[in-house]
Amino acid sequence: MSLLEIERLTAGYGEAVVLEEMSLSVSEGECLAVLGRNGVGKSTLMLAIMAHAARFAGRLRWDGHDFSTLSTNQRVGLGLGWVPQEREIFPSLTVEENLLVAHRRGGRFDLNGIYEVFPRLKQRRRNMGDKLSGGEQQMLAIGRTLMTSPRLLLLDEPFEGLAPVIVEELEETLMRLRRDSGFAIIIVEQRAEDVLRLSDRAIVLDRGKIVLEGKSAELLADFEQVHRWLSV
Ligand SMILES: Nc1ncnc2c1ncn2[C@@H]1O[C@H](COP(=O)(O)OP(=O)(O)OP(=O)(O)O)[C@@H](O)[C@H]1O
């Protein structure tokens, strides 16, 4: 059975429909890449999964149970962990306080667990949120979400604006975490070839619809057809 199943989801903001009748599923431990040009609805898909965008029609299931009407907090409780594109670090809290805000009792990760994953956060634990580099902010945003013990991690352009060496470090950490903890990942990313190497499967969106999907290795082998949907 799929961990997350989305059935004919139509979603958007106010009156505006952004996603149309989108269906997809993610299994336990699977990594799904979401590709597409700017403005095609990739972030909206993440936001709709977290109840931050409006659902106009369709169903969302978790472990086979309908969660379409649950609030964001209830979805976090189920094990959905969203790392927003803007990172949303609390600037006036320290690194440690940012992490503790999200801590879930009895969860898989505590502070020490996060510091093992991201030793740099331990070094910076007394720094205020607004005194961090972009890479450290991203580590903190991911660490904070891990504190909620997700079974599915939703990553919205996690490598945006980061130096290549930091991107490499983060990619390795994420893949190691996934191997060790077995959670699933949905990752939105602009650098299509890189993310196809990391992921198991991928979907390509255009104007709120899935226009191409398949195993990442196969899409990588025939990258021309993916590229066609990504070039302006
Ligand atoms: N809060 C909002 N209210 C109204 N419309 C929005 C809102 N957020 C996004 N949109 C619109 O929804 C459409 C899809 O945006 P979305 O951010 O999901 O695209 P995206 O594929 O993630 O793009 P990008 O790669 O630029 O982040 C765009 O036309 C955008 O203007």
TrEMBL record:
This is ABC transporter ATP-binding protein. GO terms for molecular function: ATP binding. Residues 4-232 form the ABC transporter domain. Transmembrane segments: none annotated. Keywords: Amino-acid transport, ATP-binding, Nucleotide-binding, Transport. Belongs to the ABC transporter superfamily. InterPro entries: AAA+_ATPase (IPR003593), ABC_transporter-like_ATP-bd (IPR003439), ABC_transporter-like_CS (IPR017871), BCAA_Transport_ATP-bd_LivF (IPR052156), P-loop_NTPase (IPR027417). The keyword Nucleotide-binding applies. Involved in beta-(1-->2)glucan export. Transmembrane domains (TMD) form a pore in the inner membrane and the ATP-binding domain (NBD) is responsible for energy generation.
